[in-house]
Backbone:
């Protein structure tokens, strides 16, 4: 059978692309090498990490804060095996949900590893070594990303782990050393800190959360420090040596000649220095698909590569490596292939760190606006002045709204605080419609809610916050 579209990879970008294409009447198939659908996100990324973040947060809440509200409990006991089963059950439910959706939309699934033999031909190799060629008018590459390796440090997923291994530890490490102060490192570091680990984060740069608003990053680091996470910034790991009964980690200053190296002990080392596009085995070189210096597939505004009929979305192309970005690109390319006007607004893609408190960001940072020479106004409002946050004792953090100085159009919003991942969506919708800070400020917000902090920050752009 020849298909209108074959999607390689059934992660968030791939399966969403396939479903939208099928909705639009395209004969669609997916090729997936995993035993289950959902890609890294559902299997070993977003979903299992959020399950452990939630469970560990409940464990810490029970252990330390319920007594303040008059809820007396004996000290909670950690059953890590059961917590992991809770996580695995959530993963299974999600991946089965994707399998159901593919069947519901009459999308054919070819299990195995894909190689693009030529434009319009996808060769699928099954686990048993069998081969078949699937014909397609169009091919979408949605193979996602893989962990970035640290030169000289071998990941065994037991002692030296990637995010995958960090989600499967059989016991709580006494000492966890995290290499990288980005989203993955801080989320998983938070999980194991709550469950009892001593956590040290080593970061090459002089700040946490590279790319996010610097003011947010500084306050966020202070909050994590109060929670017990230690940081060594402007530092690099140069050696991880496993000896009998111990693991020695050598840490040096990031700049040459800046100081002495030191050696620290760790039970587990988490390598979380980023992710790289995964295109191994696809045969891109043979068919001439162009990539950039970072290994990302080059595409035009319609997600087309330089080879006719081959498209790419998600982590394998430029842009933030986020599941929701891949989903929107999957919808867009499916609509383009069906003759519609698919589009992604890259200026309005939220980014969330699911620690406690959460960090959420959308649009430009102050640093980006300064670099671009854009004049702007800032409105900030702390959660200490929000009634709901105050009564719930969740007052860490603030909301920051950045608006164009001349037009008042909202250019960026940055939130550090409780439920920031949900609060940011009000701002996303506002920015999608080109709203001004005054539009947000004049919209009636329910009381008492955390959303009022967003309204007050918008009011503060014109220096007229009510509760500050």
Residues:
């Amino acid at each position: 059978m020849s298909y209108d579209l074959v999607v390689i990879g059934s992660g968030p970008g791939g399966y969403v692309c396939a479903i939208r294409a099928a909705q639009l009447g395209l004969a669609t198939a997916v090729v997936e090498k995993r035993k289950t659908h959902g890609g890294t996100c559902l299997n070993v990324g977003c979903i299992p990490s959020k399950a452990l973040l939630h469970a560990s947060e409940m464990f810490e809440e029970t252990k330390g804060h319920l007594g303040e509200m008059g809820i007396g409990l004996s000290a909670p006991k950690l059953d890590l095996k059961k917590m992991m089963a809770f996580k695995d059950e959530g993963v299974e439910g999600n991946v089965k949900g994707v399998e159901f959706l593919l069947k519901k939309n009459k999308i054919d699934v070819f299990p195995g590893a894909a190689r693009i033999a030529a434009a319009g031909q996808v060769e699928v190799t099954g686990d048993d070594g069998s081969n078949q060629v699937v014909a397609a008018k169009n091919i979408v590459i949605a193979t996602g990303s893989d962990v970035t390796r640290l030169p000289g440090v071998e990941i065994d997923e037991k002692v030296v782990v990637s995010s995958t291994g960090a989600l499967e530890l059989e016991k709580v490490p006494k000492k966890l050393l995290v290499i990288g102060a980005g989203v993955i490192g801080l989320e998983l570091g938070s999980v194991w800190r709550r469950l009892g680990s001593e956590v040290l984060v080593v970061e090459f740069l002089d700040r946490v959360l590279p790319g996010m608003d610097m003011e947010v990053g500084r306050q966020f680091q202070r909050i994590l420090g109060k929670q017990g996470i230690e940081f060594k910034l402007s530092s690099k790991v140069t050696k991880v040596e496993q000896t009998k009964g111990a693991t020695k980690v050598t840490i040096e200053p990031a700049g040459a000649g800046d100081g002495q190296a030191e050696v620290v002990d760790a039970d587990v080392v988490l390598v979380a220095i980023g992710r790289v596009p995964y295109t191994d085995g696809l045969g891109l070189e043979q068919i001439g698909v162009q990539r950039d210096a970072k290994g990302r597939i080059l595409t035009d505004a319609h997600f087309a590569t330089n080879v006719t009929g081959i498209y790419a979305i998600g982590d394998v192309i430029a842009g933030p490596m986020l599941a929701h970005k891949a989903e929107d690109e999957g919808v867009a390319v499916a609509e383009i292939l069906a003759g519609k006007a698919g589009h992604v607004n890259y200026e309005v893609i939220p980014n969330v760190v699911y620690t406690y408190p959460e960090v959420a960001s959308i649009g430009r940072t102050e640093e980006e606006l300064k670099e671009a020479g854009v004049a702007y106004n800032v409105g900030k409002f702390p959660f200490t002045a929000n009634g709901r946050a105050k009564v719930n004792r969740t007052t860490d953090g603030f909301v920051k709204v950045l608006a164009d100085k001349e037009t008042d159009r909202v250019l960026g919003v940055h939130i550090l605080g409780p439920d920031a991942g949900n609060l940011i969506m009000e701002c996303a919708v506002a920015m999608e419609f080109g709203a001004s800070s005054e539009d947000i400020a004049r919209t009636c917000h329910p009381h008492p809610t955390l959303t009022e902090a967003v309204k007050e920050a918008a009011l503060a752009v014109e220096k007229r916050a009510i509760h500050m």
In short: The first strand starts at residue 2 and ends at 8. The chain is about 35% helix and 25% strand. The chain has three domains: 2-147+276-337, 160-273, 351-461. Residues 190 and 355 are 7 Å apart (CA to CA).
